[in-house]
Amino acid sequence: MPIHDNDRHAVVLEIGRAYTKCGFVGENEPRVIIPSKLEGTKKREGIYLHEYSTKKELHSNLVKFLHHIFFKYLLVNHRERRIVIVESLLCPTEFREVLANVLYVHFEVPSVLFVPSHLVTLYTLGISTALVIDIGHEETTMIPVCEGTPLIHAWQAQPLGNKAIQERLESLLLLRAKVQGNGGQKIDLVDVMPKLSRAVLEDIVVRTCFVTTLPRARQLVAARTHEDGPSPPVPPPTILYPLSGNNNLTLDGSVREESAEVLFETDNEMVSLASMVLDAILASPIDFRVPLAENLVIIGGGCMLPGLKFRLLAEIKDLQQHPKYSSRIALKALKVHRPPAKSNYTAWLGGAILGATEAIATRSYAREVYMQTNRVPDWNNLADNTKEVDSRAG
Ligand SMILES: Nc1ncnc2c1ncn2[C@@H]1O[C@H](COP(=O)(O)OP(=O)(O)OP(=O)(O)O)[C@@H](O)[C@H]1O
Ligand SMILES: [Mg+2]
User: Which SUPFAM superfamilies match (predicted)?
Assistant: First the structure.
C-alpha cells in the first residue's frame, strides 16, 4: 500500500480510560472524541471499556466499540486502512493483546503501528528530550524521554487524575451541599441523592472547579488544622448548579476550590504531583536532570483545569527546599512547553504526525506476521527491540 495514499489515510486511535480520540494521520485534530464506553440505554449507563472482568468480555466490547468508530464516526473500510494506536507505555498487556486480536482477526486490518503516547507527544514539538507528564482520568503518569528514548525505569504513576478530584468533590458535596427546590427550601444533598453519577461529577469539575494558588492552599490548611489558627480566606462565590427536575445544587465556593487539592496533598509518603516530578528527574541520568526540568510537557485532559500548571510549578519549586530533595537536586529553572494542540489530544496529534511519515510503512506490524506469531511486540521487552524484529515490519 502506498504511504501517502490520500484516499486511504491511516486511522489514528487513542483509547483512554475516559475518552477515545479518533481521526486520520496528517490531520491536526481528531475527527471525534467520544467516551471510551459502549453506548448505554435509557435505563442503564454504558459500560466503560477498561472496566471488564474477563478477556472475553473485553473482546466483545472492543468489537462493538470499534465497529461504531469505523462505521458511525469515521466511515471507513477497516480492511483497507492501516491503524496507528497511541498507547501508554504502562498499558496493561492484556488490553493491548485483546485489542490487537480484535483489529487483526476480527476487523482484518492490514497493519497496526503501536506508538507510545509519552514519546510521540514530543513529535508535536520537534524536541527529543522532555519530561512528559500525562494527567489523565484515572492516573497521572510521567516518563522522562532522553534523546528520543523513554526511560522506563524512571516512570512515575499515581492515581492522581480527574477521577480523584471527582471523588473528593463527591465526598465534600455529600458533607456540605444543599439542594434548593422551587419553593426555596433547602435540603441536605445526602437526603436527596446518596450518590452522584459520574457524568454529573465530571460536569461539575470541568465547569466549576479550579486549582487555587499555593499561598491560599496553605491558608486553607492552616485554618482547617489549627482550631485557634488564622481565619480561612474569603471563599469564591457560591453558584447554583441545575440538578434533575427543579432542584438546584448550591455549590459552595470552598468546595469548588478544595476539590483539586487532592492532587497536591502530601501524605505520609509525600506523594503528590510535585514529588512525582522530582522523583522522575532524580531517577534520570545526572546529565539529563537540568534539560528535563527545562523541558516539561504537560498533557492529558486533567491539566486543563484552570490554575493547575501554575500551581504545579509553584509546588515543585517549594518542594525542592524540602530536606528530602534539597541536598540531591538543584534545578535553576522549570520551563513548560506549549504544544500546538489542546492538552487532551496532544498525544493523539503526535501519533497523527508519526503516522504521516515513512514509519507507517517501515514500523507497522503487518497482519500476516501477526497471524503467524499471534503476538505483537512489546515496548518493554528487549527481545522485541532488536534488528531481527524490525525486519519483520509490514
Ligand atoms: N477542559 C477541561 N477542563 C478540566 N478537565 C477536563 C477538560 N477536558 C477534559 N477534562 C477531564 O480530563 C480527564 C481526562 O481526560 P483525558 O482525555 O486525558 O482522559 P483519558 O486519556 O481517557 O484518561 P487516561 O489517560 O487516564 O486513560 C477527564 O476526566 C475529563 O473530564
Ligand atoms: Mg490519556
Answer: Actin-like ATPase domain (SSF53067)
